[in-house]
Amino acid sequence: MEQRFPRVRVWVVAALALVWMVAVLARLSYVQLVRYGDYLSRARKQQQRIVEISPRRGILYDRNLRELAMSISVDSCFAVPSEIADPDMVARLLSEVLGESADEIQAKLKSSRSFVWIERKLPPEKVERIQALNLTGIYFQKESRRFYPKRELAAHVLGYVDIDEVGRGGIEYQFDEAIRSKPGRLLILADARHRWYDRDEQSPASGAAVVLTLDEKIQYIAEKELRAAIRETRAKAGTIVVQDPHTGEILALANWPTFNPNAPGESRPEARLNRAVATIHEPGSTFKIVTLAGAFEENLTTVGEWIDCQNGAIYIAGHRIRDHKPFGVLNVSQVMAKSSDVGAIKLGLRLGAPKFFDYIRAFGFGKTTGIELPAESRGLLRGIDKWTPISIGSISMGQEVGVTEVQVVSAFSAIANGGLLYPPRVVRGIRRGDAFTPSAEPEAQRVISPTTAATMRRLLEGVILDGTGYLARLDGYTAGGKTGTAQKIDPATGRYSLTDHVASFVGFAPINEPAITVLVTLDSPPGVYHGGDVSAPIFKRVAEQVLAYHNVPQDVPQATRQQLARARHEAVVDVSDFSPAQRVEPAGNLPVFPPEPAAQSTGEPAPTVALAEGEGVEVPALEGMSVRGVTEACLRVGLNPVLIGTGVAVEQKPEAGERLRRGSRVTVRFARSAESGRGN
User: Where are the beta strands (DSSP E) in 311-377?
Assistant: First the structure.
C-alpha cells in the first residue's frame, strides 16, 4: 500500500507537468503564431524609429538648360534625448546658436527618448557652431534643400517649396508629382532603454527635371525694366510678359512685387501672387483690337472709312458715353491710332452682340488659357443673355470685361502671327536622366484671316507712328501696339475710381515678321497714368534689348530713323484740329491724297532711300483693285499699304514699277465712282 502512494504522486506530478507544458506550448504558439505580427510591430516601435528624409527634387531649367532651381545637400540637426545627461544645459547652448528659446528646445527633447529633430536644413555657419559645442546626443543628418541660385529671378513661374520639399507655388506645385522623388529613409535602432546604438540610411532618388520656355537673359531684362518702371512711376504693382507669337511660348514673365523663393516666409502673401495669371482687370483700350478685328473680318468697315466721332460723345440706351477727347471725323485707322471710344463703339454696334461675343471668346477671353501655372483665372465675361443694352458699348472700349495678362498678350500674338491663337505655355518638356519628353504641341485656333491680321498690324503700327503709342517707337525696328488706360473699381463705393488706373501697352516687333510680343502693365501709378505715357516707354526698352539679344535684323533704314528721332521732339497733332478740307462728307468726295492726319507728325514726306540696281521690290499695279485686293498685293511683296477712302483704287504713289525697300509705304486712294477693277 505504501509503495502505491509514491507511484500515484509521480503520476500526479507528471500530469501536472504535462498540463504545464501544454499550457506553455499553447501560449508560445499563440504568441509566435497568432500574435506574432502584433508583437513584432510593438518591438519595432520600441527598438526602431523610421524618419523620412527630404526627397531630391529635379532641376528646373530655362530653355537653354541654365539651372533656375536645384536641390543641394545640407545638414539637419537631431537629438537622441536618452543620451543627454543635462537637457537644460544642452537646450540653453543650442538656443544661443539657433535663435530659439531654450524652453522650445527643451520641449522637443522631452517629446521622445530615441529621436527628435532640433532644426532642419541649417546653414553651414550654424552647423559649424553646433559641432564646435561637441554635445553628446546631438547628431547631424544630410537632407536635400531646394535652392534658387538666381534668387528672385522668375520667382512667380518657379514657385517655392515648404520644409518637407513639397511644392507650394508655380511650377514647383503644378509639377510636384514629377519633380518630387520618393523620400529617403533614416532607420534608428535603439535598445530597451531607448538608447540609440545604430542607424541605417536609404538615400532619396532624384525627381524629373523640367525644361521651361523662359529665357534667363530675357527674364532678367523684363525684371530689370519692371523694377525701374516701378521706381520711376511709383506704381503699386506691375507685370511684363514676353511671348513668342509663333508658338505661344512665354519667354519672360515678371511681376512686381516679387519675393525670394529661398525664403518665401519672409515675404507678404501679395508678393507671392502671380499677377499675370491670377488677377483680372478691365483692359481698357487694348481690347479695341477685338472690336476692330471683328468688324474687319465681317467686312463691316475698311481702313479708310470715315467715321463721325460726334465731338466725343455718344448715347446708348439713354446713357451718354464720353470720349477721352472731342474727336470729330476720323477714318478707321485714326480711330485705332487716337484710341477713339466713340469710333470703337460705332464699330461694335455694327458687329452686334452675338458676333461680338463670339469674337471675344475666339480671342481667348472668358476662359482659362491652359498655361501650366496654378490658380489661373478665366477672367470675367458675362453670358450674352446677361448683357444690358449698354454692354456692347462698354465692352467695345474695354469695360465690363475682366482679363488676365496672359490672355491679352496671347490675343495680340494672334494678330502678330497672322490670325492664329496659340495657348500660352511655360513648359517645353520633362527630362528623366538622358531621356527628354517634349510637351505636347498646343493646337492653334484660327481667330481671324491672314488678311484681317495684316490690316490690324498696319493699324497697330499707326498707333506707334502716329497716335497714342508714339513713345513706344523703336530704334531700328518697326513695331505695332496699343495703349490702354482703364479705371479701377473703388472697393469703397463700387464705382470707377478717379485716382486709380491700370496703364498698359501691348505690342510686337518687327511689324512684317514679328519675333516677340511684349505686354507691360502698371497698376495705379500716381500722377501721370496713361498707358501711352508710362507703359509705352517700358515696351520700347524691353523690345529693343530682346530683339538685339535675338539678333533680329533691323528693318528701319537709317534715314527713317533720323526722321523718327526728330519726330519724337515735335508736338503730336490733335485729330480734332483737322482742316475743313479733311472733314469729308459721307457722300465721299475724298480729297486727292490729303496730308495723313497726325500720321506723319513731322509734316514731311517719307524719305527716299537710294537703292542699288536690282535691290528692293517692285511696286505692283494697284489701280482698279478693291481694298482687300490692294492689301493682299502689297503684303505679298512686303510693302506697307496706306489706304485712303473706300471703293476701288483710283490712284497710287509711288507709281507701279518703281522699286522700294521692303516695309516701305505705298499710298493708295480709293473712290466709289470708279468702275470695279481687279481683286476681291
Answer: 313-316, 319-322, 329-331
Sign of the C-alpha dihedral, residues 565, 570, 572, 573?
Answer: negative
Contact call for residues 463 and 531 (beta carbons, < 8 A)? no
Burial class (CB in 10 A: 0-12, 13-18, 19+), 32: exposed
Q: Which of 285, 333, 396, 504 is catalytic?
A: 285
Name the amino acid, one letter, at 484: G
Q: Which distant-in-sequence residues (6+ apart) come within 8 Å of 26 by Cβ? A: none
Whole-number Å distance between alpha carbons of 254 and 411: 19
What does the radius of gyration of the chain's CA atoms come to, in whole angstroms?
A: 36
Distance CA(70)–CA(2), nearest Å, equals 93
Backbone angles phi, psi at 264, to 5 degrees: -65, -30
Q: Residue 187 — φ and ψ, nearest 5°?
A: -100, 115
Quick one: which of 143, 164, 179, 182 has its CA closest to 69?
179
At 438 the three-state DSSP class reads strand
Q: Are 671 and 648 in contact (CB under 8 A)?
A: yes
Which residue blocks in 31-73 are alpha helix, DSSP H?
36-47
Q: What is the predicted pLDDT for the residue at 235?
A: 97
| pTM for the whole structure | 0.75
CA distances from 198 to 48, 80, 195 (A): 10, 12, 9
How many helices and strands, by DSSP H and E, does the chain display?
21, 26
Burial of 174 (0-12, 13-18, 19+ CB in 10 A): buried
pLDDT digits (tens, 9 = 90+) for 514-563: 999 999 999 999 999 999 999 999 999 999 999 999 999 998 876 555 55
Percent of the chain whose pLDDT exceeds 70 = 81
CA dist., res. 494 & res. 647, Å (int): 47
The Cα–Cα gap between 347 and 293 comes to 10
Cα 615 to Cα 513, 605, 658: the distances in Å are 19, 22, 11
d(CA 617, CA 638): 8
The pLDDT of residue 582 is above 70: no
Backbone angles phi, psi at 423, to 5 degrees: -60, 135
Residue of 636, 644, 648 lying closest to 672 (CA atoms): 648
Report how far residue 212's alpha carbon sits from residue 251's, in angstroms, rounded to the nearest whole number: 9
Determine contact, residues 426/315, Cβ cutoff 8 Å.
no
Interstrand relation of 480-489 and 496-509 (parallel, antiparallel or unpaired): antiparallel
3-state secondary structure 114-154: CCEEEEEEECHHHHHHHHHHCCCCEEEEEEEEEECCCCCCC
Residue 377, Cβ density class (10 Å: 0-12 exposed, 13-18 middle, ≥19 buried) = middle
Are the CB atoms for 479 and 544 separated by under 8 Å?
A: no
Q: Hey, is 653 helix, strand or coil?
A: strand
Identify whether 504 is a catalytic site residue. Answer: no
Handedness of CA 259, 260, 262, 265 (dihedral sign): negative
Hey, which residues does 497 pair with through a beta bridge?
A: none
